[in-house]
Amino acid sequence: MIHFILVEPVDDKFKSLDKVYKAKDALKAAKKAYRANKHLEIVYLYDKDNKTVHKFNTETFFTKKKPHKKS
User: At a CB cut-off of 8 Å and minimum separation 6, what does 50 contact?
Assistant: First the structure.
């Protein structure tokens, strides 16, 4: 499990929001962060292991699935 920290952009740097999510990859952590913070349109997560920031657009998270067509 990788630790991801929810951050927000401030000028040219990122500020920690003191929320940590454990997940297997960044997308799973972003979905967890979105569930807890529905007001966020873009989720920024800092990967503690790789020291990188991941950016996710939440518009497509948890959209309603189309019904299957029966043949």
Answer: none
